[in-house]
Amino acid sequence: MPDNIQCPDCKRINEVLSRVGDRWSFLVVFSLARYGTLRFNELKRSLGISQRMLSLTLKQLERDGLVHRTYHPSIPPKVEYTLTETGRSFHEPVNALGLWALENLDKIETARRAYDETV
Amino acid sequence: MPDNIQCPDCKRINEVLSRVGDRWSFLVVFSLARYGTLRFNELKRSLGISQRMLSLTLKQLERDGLVHRTYHPSIPPKVEYTLTETGRSFHEPVNALGLWALENLDKIETARRAYDETV
DNA sequence: CGGTATCCTCACGGATACTG
DNA sequence: CAGTATCCGTGAGGATACCG
């Protein structure tokens, strides 16, 4: 790497991650991909997320074109969320990350304990 | 989804992501995977990260067993960082995410503008 | 060069209450 | 049910200064 330039892609990757790279966005996409369609409170229970953060996260994801929102004007109201095509394509790397996480949690905890003992 | 239980994997995924799922960790792993070995200040310039955050991020990644640190006691000192095997395996999903980010930045910005106009 | 220490700010995010 | 509004605490993270 030439030492006076930045990692050429990191800046752009950073931009995208700062939009859809937070933990709640990951988990919402992960959940919607798994279950297809979920209502607001189903997502809320599913993720253990606060009402406020879910509302904010869903609005961002809708704005960025990853999530589609369908409002059924019944009483009580019913709102369903699904992934858009872009959202589904985002699911692939998100899922890969989730699987890696599940597979490596133990390894990380072991490494962490080992590290802490040497200190 | 049964409506009274949580997304079964989300809790564990959340745990791992809360450790290695921050943006700086992603970018450090992404950079180290691409360039192999980098010194502290090379990483710093490469990522546009503050000295403090890079120091903290590297220490976490070393602790979690994703990054290996080699100290050369010369004058001036020289410290090189590489990925461990776990770190390299982490690179796969991180890279997938990075590539997705690069491919979809435009699409996201377009969706965002469209959304903002309807409001 | 490769850090640590300190200070300071602001955004993340929970708790609670209220509404159509 | 599906939000919005408000308040508030904590922690992420930059800026700066200093050190071996």
UniProtKB/TrEMBL annotation, chains A, B:
Keywords: DNA-binding, Transcription, Transcription regulation. It comes from Halodurantibacterium flavum. SUPFAM superfamilies: Winged helix' DNA-binding domain. This is Winged helix-turn-helix transcriptional regulator. PROSITE patterns: HTH_HXLR. It comes from the Bacteria. InterPro entries: HTH_HxlR, WH-like_DNA-bd_sf, WH_DNA-bd_sf. Residues 7-109 form the HTH hxlR-type domain. Pfam families: HxlR.
